[in-house]
Protein 1
Amino acid sequence: MRIPVALYPFSAQLLPAVKAFEQLQDKYTLQRLVSHPGFGLTGQDAGYSRNHPHVGIIVTDELDLADPGWDLLLLIQTLGAEAENSSKLETAAERALQLGKSVRYLADGSTEVPDGISALAEVYSGMVIHNGSMASHRSPEASNDAYKDVSVPIVLVGGLVEEADTLEVVLRLTALLRADGFQVTTITNNPVGQLFGLHTLSHITNRKDLAEARKISELNQFVRKLEAIERPQVVLIEAPDAVLRYNDFAPNGFGIYTYMLCQAVRPDHFVCCVPCEMAVGPFLEAISSDFAHRLGMPVHATHVSNLIVHAMDIVQTRSISYTHAELAAVREQIDVYGQGSPIPLFDVVSNGVEGLYTHLNSIMRLERPEKGGDLLCFSAK
Amino acid sequence: METPFIQVFRTPNSCYFLDVNKNELVPVSRASFHYLCALLSGKDDGEEPVPQELHELHAQGYLASESAVKEVRHPYTKFIGTFLDRKLAKITLQLTQNCNFRCKYCIYSEEHNVRQRSHSTEHMSWEVAKKAVDFLWSHSVDSKSVNVGFYGGEPLLEFPLIRRVVEYCEERFYGKDLTFTITTNGTLLSDEIIHYFEAHDISLMISLDGPKEINDKNRVYADGRGTYDVVMERIARLKVIAPEYAKRLQISMVMDPENDFDCINAIYLEGDTLDRMGIMPSIVDRDYDGDEVAFSEEYTWKYEYQRFLAVLAHWGRFPEEKVSPIAQYSLAAALDDDRLIGTSTGLRSIDSPSGPCVPGQMRLLVDVNGRLFPCERVSESSLAMCIGTLDKGVDVEKASHLLNVGRLTEAACKQCWCFRYCTICAKRADDGSNGLSADAKISFCDETRAGAYGKLKQYLFFKEVPMFYAVQVRSMEAEGGKNL
């Protein structure tokens, strides 16, 4: 029996998790999505947050703690511009607990659990779950082992800008791999991944007490430990930041964490998520060549996002600015540029995930397990 | 050699051409430069041999004679509906068309406007203001931050409405980065208003044109009295009761270049009421009264001299505090623009001159009656500029027409070296006939090209400085020079 859940605060960042919620875990069922009024989502289907197809849950801006329709409040400390003030989350948690609800708090693994949440966990024993008590989130302690390659194929999913559906691609591929019986270790940036048994790297990348070279070693050891524990046939990793510098106005983090990751684990395959109007053959070939030199692997497949970068706004605001086009624009882009592109284009959001999955399978040569079989074959690196 | 699609530039140190298609500034020898100049001016008789350097550049794809642009169409044409539906960033609320001033150059004045509305007693109702806020809310889902601007007339005539709007916005946009701005003449700033603005972090801009003798020439009350003393007294009061907030005060200075520049600039020499760098200078806008802006000799040469000092100060060769803040602001803005020059792309087969913004997306003006305009700078009397209403929403087709104002003059634009550096938007094509006019637009081309030419020359010169003056620079560094 799944526990009915209200998720708060819902934002566009969490849409991929909402879509995959029922598929990737069997403990909870999502009943309510509560957003802040300012996000402009109230009364809309959750899919509206990214101009995606409807997902069947209407967003509200009222956290009704007396609502009998849910039993657990899922508090997610989101990242970036939508980052939530933890005191607001603590207040919501306390009120929910007072009314007999349970609380699960998910945050970026690099930060401490807020004192307020820890205190509530002590007072309401057994009613609060947070990062600190989740073994699945904690990294296996790094040892002083020398650097070694991971022995199974690694697929990196990264975006030219961070918001270009990387989480959606990772979650969809994870679901398909799992459904086909493959053992997959998945690493994402969003704390919500913890719900689905996924991992994050932020507890290493965001550490301030480690030199960059040391972080690379830690990343290597962390992924190898995961490999040792989970025995995956494939490792899927969402790039920790945008994969390259955007321009002088919005350097976009210079892709520094992705570079470090690629030094640490040397991905074999790269799915690049690109804003719609950038999905053009010659451009993709150029960046693929750049990635091959700089990161060690070319682009093997492209997901075309409905993200449209607002170049004029970038000049004004000095940060990446975008909007979400209708998905028809993505289909049109693929129709026009897909045929001539040596790097295949997919639209994972609409219906292209099967195609992407088949394409990756064909180049990784993962063998589908036989029904009931327990021996899975794959090509080692 | 066929006439190439280029523009030539010469600085004190070197010669260049702008390859328009590639949007690259290419250094060339003096001989090549002179050859290109002759070619462009039609004085090449074909006798002169083409310099080897130009042969080589031509072989590398430079100096093409045809424009790469085959069709003028803005790249966002396909997405303008999405931008307007999901990406509004700012609305400017015209709270009132009334003002307690009657500035002599005001575009809304009864005497001077030809193609703009006049002052009136019309003001925005709460219902319209609320609808405008709701409109922003429902059309900004993809904007990380939103801004609400208060505009007039004199917006402080409607302070109770401002209050109501601010409080409604804070509730409506809870969770999103929300900011407010107001542009006012400052005379109605009471203590209560100052405290309220500080508490709600409302970004304040006060209009003031210079010292008393300059300001009071134009900025006067309806009865003709000057306004300088009252404004300065209000600013001084602001600094006393809200010193931290006062540090963020900005002064909008409309300069009439018929005045002596030193007189305008003198405002910064009078006491310490104004912060030197909180200034936003602009030249008076005469578009709507049909007159040309006149520049006096005293303005021009004194401004140029100050600009020269600003350049020296930028390189650490002159004390910043002795340079006009107006000239420093102007230089800083120009240097900021230089970054655009370095990052712009070459021309594409389907492309658009760079002037227009996405109409309404960046700073949608809502007038007192709920009509929508691309920004506060356009004529509210022109049907061409009205892109919708709060009730019916934005007319995407009309907005698209404004976005594609370049199509009006497609043939000329395709052949213009200034394609990537054009600053002409639909406002310039509005001749008051309720449509867009190619003739009106083209009449601004010379001025626009001259501005772009100056900007590119400065860009080149600034790039040269460390290279051509390395000896002087090293010597300065050895002497403890700064800002290099």
Protein 2
Amino acid sequence: MSVVEEGVDRRLRSIVIVGGGTAGWMAAAALAQVLKGRFGPVRLIESAEIGTVGVGEATIPSLAGFHELLGIDERDFVCRTGATFKLGIEFRDWHRPGTSFFHPFGGYGVGLDPAIFQSFWLRARAEGDTRGLAEWSINNLAAARGRFAPQGQGVGPLSYAYHFDASRYAQYLRAYAEVRGVERIEGRIEAVVHTRPERVDAVRLADGRVIEGDLFLDCSGFHGLLLAGALDEGFEDWSHWLPCDRAVAVGSARAGAFTPFTCSTAMEAGWRWRIPLQQRTGNGYVYCSRDVSDDEATARLLGELDGSAVGEPRLLRFTAGRRKRSWVGNCVALGLAAGFLEPLESTSIHLIQTGIGRLLSLFPDRDFDPVIAREYNRLTALEYERIRDFIILHYSASQRDDTDFWRRVRSMPLPEELAYRQSMFERTGHNVAFEEEAFLLPSWLSIYAGHQVWPARHEPIIDAIPRAELERGLSAMHAAIDQAANSFPGHADYVARLCG
Amino acid sequence: MRGSVRKIVIVGGGSAGWMAAAALSRTPDRQIELIESSDIGVIGVGEATLPTIRFFNNTLGINEIEFVRKTQATFKLGIEFRDWAGPGTSFFHGFSDFGPPIQGVSAHQLWLKTRRPDELLSYQDFSITTAAARAGRFAGPAEDKRSVLGSYSYGYHFDAGLYAAFLRGQAESRGVRRRDARIVDVRLRGEDGFISGVVLDGGEVVEGDLFIDCSGFAGLLIERALGAGFEDWSQWLPCDRAFAVGCESAGSTMPATRATARSAGWQWRIPLQHRIGNGHVFSSRFLSDDEAAATLLANLDGKPIGEPRLLKFTAGRRRKSWIRNCVALGLASGFVEPLESTSIHLIELGLGRLLELFPAQGFEPRLADEYNRQMAQRFESIRDFLILHYCIARGDDGPFWRERRESPIPDTLRAQIELFAATGQVSIRDSGSFGEPSWVSIYFGNRLWPRRYDPLADLIDDTQLRHVLDQRRHIVASAAQALPDHMAFIAAHCRADAA
């Protein structure tokens, strides 16, 4: 058997992306850059009539890898999209009203294995050290002081992400993709042509044009035109774990210097985001419609803004969960068409990015061998579930009991893996890692600690170290972090100098 | 929950027992006693390992040269599989990859694209360990991880009895007490079923807080006393016996283990400094003991040393290897045939997890749950990797090999093979176990060619790709030639004292 049968070229001849927005243009940009037109044209269909969902959008550090693939220069990107830097997320009122904790990127300590740091710190804490977990994070110290730098003396490069306006990001990537040959087709899709099961032949636009393709990427958002619509792929509903089903979003005028972190504040029936951009602030209230009406939620959001509202609040409806399969036949769903998890840990863009990465590493030909889709779907399901569990923990470990919403989310039965890992941490101090984990040990630790979930023991790997030595090591580390954070410029100054 | 662990009792010597004693003796403030009977032979003869043993030895502060000299060790760059893909065939599973990816496309995919139809195994030209082993050459990897000579790893072949003795010296010097006795009974506490002590043949009772069962297949504690139960894998791995015998070495030695397919199993050849360890692993449903022994004796490099010894086993693992205050290691926790030299590796893993989850502040049951979960995952991924060797092999077309090809395999493995056959992509289910180059070695070695190569390989300019691959081939070949002869390397650095 030869690798490619003689004379039969089964390579893709065209790719059609259905929907613009972040998912569509990220896919277009990546395919243009990687494929260089060798698998036929890449065409993207979007309608100017249909608004994109993105407002202020926050990301996680993995995005740097995507930009590296595209060869995007950070300065160009930050300045042209009005982006700001993000060192982590502050969670206000989540544990109880009046409390605050921080989930920093990049973990804790300097140059220590995360499991070793965790043991170190848990032991020091058990022996009376009162310094909180956040004290050991350069990202947290810099964020708390409103400072930012991409690296620091004695702490190396920082792990950071961005806040940006998602529609400006989509425009930015659109320009990138169009320069590299992606053809944008303006039009509204009226019908999906599919003559065989699990195969999309073409889409028909309102003006009668028919766009055929070998591979279709469904980036049509919540509509799910291809996968959910035409191919009727089922949805795995997670709303019993993540009951928030609506969000109201609005921009506001910037008040003061922008913070180098996202702020998430727990509310009576959900939580509120605050995403600082260069020119303004993105805000949104994610809530459960069972507990609060749209009008009340809007009023609550508007009442909490720290600057005057810009434009009208927009309402979004959703259901937490994912498509049972996000790759079916010749159609791959990315972004909201593949699934929805509330943006509590800013994972929407990350999931688009890893979807594109998986598509490239399992790149199909026209045979669309189902084993390829099966592997893609297996990995996608695992990744979604791990992130889902991480988000659920934010709710389930809370001690708020001021509303019916919080009492419900605190007492709901947990997914099996989450229940396992939480009880493992509580009883043994062991932080379990499963396959395809997007958030690593220090991230889980920050949420446990923020919710005062303390283990009954620490792992004994560091027990042989004498107390004084432990003390010296921790103090030296703390001094280095503290000093580095103080040496950073203010976040706004850093951005101003970068884009000046 | 009970109080802290002050006294650890290890039941059984051998590799598992003394590895445990040496590793646990480094934890502070603990009394350790190891009970072994000098009338019970240890199973280990020539033993081959994975590279991870170097990490284990390092954490024990072992000096490599001293260790090699005292255990008659030689170096191992991989395994040569003979006759698996059909009589007269040979392929390698080396401890290195096939070169770095180009534009994200794996090296084996690049080779697939550029190979000529008559080139079956030329992907091996990109493996430095394969090239070096075939040339009988060895040296430790260079510091620079980016260079070909810095991008591989190695393990050892050694005499397992000597390794146990070496570790015994280490452990005893750190206060481990050894008792020479047989265990005749195990005492359980009435209230919670924990092991309170083991009764020796002299009637004495040895008490302890934590018991490590290294008693081999028998599982004196974990099975006989605690009834862990055994998950039988013999429908997938039907070999249930082995004859083992040493033989005289006929001079120069390749730094690799050899596994040769036989009519109802396979034969190992493990070169030590002073002799060669050999064994014939077979299925008793297809071959009599007499025939198996005869086959082994007919296929030795030199004169046999002593009589072949028969071992009986069943592939599988204990359903739980940590129950209450007892942790089983080595054969007491499970057995898979030594086709990929994983026995010592599984002991290392068990000890690593035990130290991480050590019940220093009491026997919280979740510790055992997590230990058992992780070990089950590791055992199963190794099991599947071994089953792969059989289910895609051709062997000799006799009934044993026909049955292996036609028998059902675990669903996860089937999905992995189907993905590779369709795309050449390796699906890794356990990131802590064998990686992509290992899977590719077995797939390609058995002539399982994917129906296509990675389409993204077409993004690389063809002429340039061929040029880069030619260059890599050349660099690997000359790097291998630059290494010293394996036996000369040993003679210069770490020759064992005369046996």
